[in-house]
Amino acid sequence: MDQPSVDAAPWPVIIQGGMGVGVSGWRLARAVAERGHLGVVSGVGCETLLARRLQDGDPDGVLRDAMAAFPIPGVADAMVRRYFRPEGRAADEPYRPMPLYHHAMSIARQQQLMLGAFVEVSLAKRGHRGAVGINLLTKIQLPTLPTLYGAMLAGVDYVLMGAGIPREIPGVLDALAAHRPCTLRLDVEHAPEGRIYELAFDPAAHWPGEPPPLVRPRFLAIIASHALATMLARKATGRVDGFVVEGPTAGGHNAPPRGELRVDERGEPVYGPRDAVDLGALRQLGLPFWLAGGAGHPERLRAAQAAGAVGVQVGTLFALCEESGIAPALKRSLVAHAGRGEVAIRTDPRVSPTGYPFKIVTWPEDPSRGGARERICDLGYLRTAYARADGSVGYRCPGEPVDAYLDKGGRREDTDGRRCLCNELTATIGLGQRRAGGSVEPPLVTSGDELGALAGFLAGRTQFGAGDVIAYLGG
To answer: How far apart are the C-alpha atoms of 374 and 369, rounded to whole Å?
Structure first.
């Protein structure tokens, strides 16, 4: 497990965005990293994806091979016993679910999270000496500590986090690198005055003997304002190594506009001058930064570097390349329609249970068009913690069944327009859950605005790889 320090490594020019649930999986991250740039795996739902792929038979054995290298005894064996199906599932058989996690998490549940992240990162790092990162959402707090530790056990080089204020994460990385206990403040709605809730993780609880030495990964905060960058640089609990500056044209979750929310005639949030990042103020911090959102063009890379950036983070082009995790048939359909300009990208202020605006893509063959989905919350990554009357912690999601949400003190108006991103994004990579009556969870595709200009990049091609994207950008 020994590895050289990442502190002496050169900064990558191109960062491949950490997209969706498994869209930026290990195959894509490895394809980028082995070409000398930063490949990034998504850290959301790694253990669920591992469990479902094991139930689908792991036909090439690559997952079980990676699991066998997990250094804590018994963890991989327990996962195999519970979820592996040598012949795969029957065509009409649903996936065996994983238990929802809570703020007081069992050792076994922590180890599933650790193992899922370990497998993604270790497979992404195989066969080359390039850098691999993991992307997590600050908003999704419960799995963060075990996921980070599992990624570090696999030698992850970078941690990237946005969708919130990741002020505590640098100190967490310091503690985990030394195998020390650490905590993360849990955001709890309606918490009693003066009451602080914390998530706790102790690496020593998992080791029967001496753990291996670890190296602290570099930490890049994903930000949408120079004020947040300044605060993190000065007040984070440890070293912030750099920033990814993400504008509202990027795919997935976007930062909400500053000030009072205004929407245009299409119902999309209106962004203005206050939402532009002051790159001059950012440069004064003396830390490296990368520009993201509509950056997938060689001219954008040159402009970013002229403005003082090391380079760019690119999502949309990598999301549609052959190595990405989007289900092949879905990807082919999307690329074909985008090449003809037959796609629509909308920034929806309501669709995400998080309350953050979220980009959604529609096109003529979009399998989610016109379908009605039964409200079910059985993955639970986007649940919000709230304080019950007795001070204990409960969980609710505006995308769950409305009556259940209201019973937990939620407001009916918060449920309007919400969708289950957890299940729909999992379906986008071909791992959608089968429901009663034979229906399968519909996919949801997100993309940056530059999808609308994909024809220029395709130049007549119907498919392309990560290497084509890097060559196009000039890397």
So the answer is: 15
Rounded to an integer, what is the distance from CA 285 to the centroid of its chain?
Answer: 27
Mean pLDDT is highest, among 169-178, 230-239, 289-298, 331-340, for 169-178
Distance CA(285)–CA(242), nearest Å, equals 10
- Residue 157 predicted with pLDDT over 90: yes
The answer to whether the CB of 252 falls within 8 A of the CB of 315 is yes
Query: Does 1 score more than 50 pLDDT?
Result: no
Question: How many residues comprise the chain?
Answer: 475
Residue 6, pLDDT > 70, answer no
Segment 36-54 mean pLDDT: 96
Query: Is-contact 188 132, C-beta < 8 A?
Result: no
Question: So where are the chain's domains?
Answer: 10-327+460-473
0.90 cut: is pTM over it? yes
> Is 10-327+460-473 assigned to CATH 3.30.10?
no
From CA 456, how far away is CA 450, in angstroms rounded?
10
C-alpha Rg value of the chain to the nearest Å: 21
Q: Among 74, 15, 71, which residue's Cα sits nearest to residue 39?
A: 15
Q: Is the CB of residue 144 less than 8 Å from the CB of residue 101?
A: no
